[in-house]
Each structure stands twice: as C-alpha cells, then as structure tokens.
Amino acid sequence: MKELVVSKIKDGTVIDHINAGRAPLVLKILGIDVGTDLTVSMAMNVSSSKMGKKDIVKVEGMYISEEKLSKIALISPNATINLIRNYEIERKFKVNPPEVVEEVLKCPNPMCVSNAEREPVRSIFYVKIEENEVSARCHYCGRKIKDLANYIS
Ligand code: CTP
Ligand code: ZN
Fold first, then answer.
1. Is the CB of 2 under 6 A from ligand 1?
2. Based on CB atoms within 10 Å of each CB, which residue in 50, 51, 75, 78 is the most buried?
C-alpha cells in the first residue's frame, strides 16, 4: 500500500528519492533556512520500495535552477525532480551529476592552489559515480573526496 507522508502540493517542485538523511542538505543548497517565507515540507527516512529509505522535499512555488539541481545530484545522484502545476506532474526527470564541477566543491587540501590566499584559482573537480555514491578528484592536487556534502562551498 502506498501512503502519503506529506500532502500533495499545488504548484512547485517535489524532490523525491533523496538519499536518506540528506534532506537538510538539499534545503541548504536551495537556500532555504531559518526564517524562510516559502511553504516547504520535508520527510526524512521514509520507506521506499526502490531505495529502502529515502527523504523527500516539497517546495511550493519554487522552480529550481540547473546549477542547484547539479549540486543536489552531487549529494543525491538518484533524486527525482517533479515539477508540479495545478496538482499535476508536468515534468519528471532525474538529476544528473556533472562530470566536472567548477566552484562548487572546496578542496580540503590546505596546500592546494585552489586554496591559495593570494591568488586562489577556481576550484575544479572531476566527478565519479560508483554504486550510488559520488566521489570527486581535485583538478589541481589530485585529492579525492567522498561524502561530497561536506565540501559543498
Ligand atoms: N506529488 C506532490 N504533489 C502533487 C503530485 C505529486 O507532492 N500534486 C509528489 C508525490 O507525493 C510523490 C512525487 O510527487 O512524492 C512523485 O509523484 P508520483 O509520480 O505520483 O509518485 P511515484 O509514481 O511514486 O513516483 P516515482 O515513479 O518517481 O517513484
Ligand atoms: Zn586540491
């Protein structure tokens, strides 16, 4: 049986199949924080036939930019975006992690030129997806990072 955890929305975006526990990070990427005026609902660790457990975020009246969608893909490569108009799903698509990300992740290596104080260069990472988890490698110093959520700048 299918249960509805949070009610349907009229117009806006539903981000479904978010990796369990990461909905707060999705809100962070969307810039939704304390004091927001938006109508937002969030469910964490709900049962999903496809994923075991998943998170969901629903935002009324918001349509999300490509840039933010690619950030969401880095932390939740299986997320599905549903654009809702007048209660109907107008479009459904999967997020798509980019192969290269510029100025999205911060290299944790303090010696990396991307962190140089005087002449910092744009951060560039090469993204790899393995078994539902995304990792990335710094263009400049080769440092590999997992759990990209910790490095979103
Ligand atoms: N949804 C919503 N408001 C609407 C329509 C849909 O909040 N007016 C939500 C549903 O609650 C669900 C998501 O959008 O979380 C996708 O809806 P739907 O495609 O009907 O569900 P599924 O078939 O389970 O989706 P999928 O195949 O992507 O798993
Ligand atoms: Zn680096």
1. no
2. 75
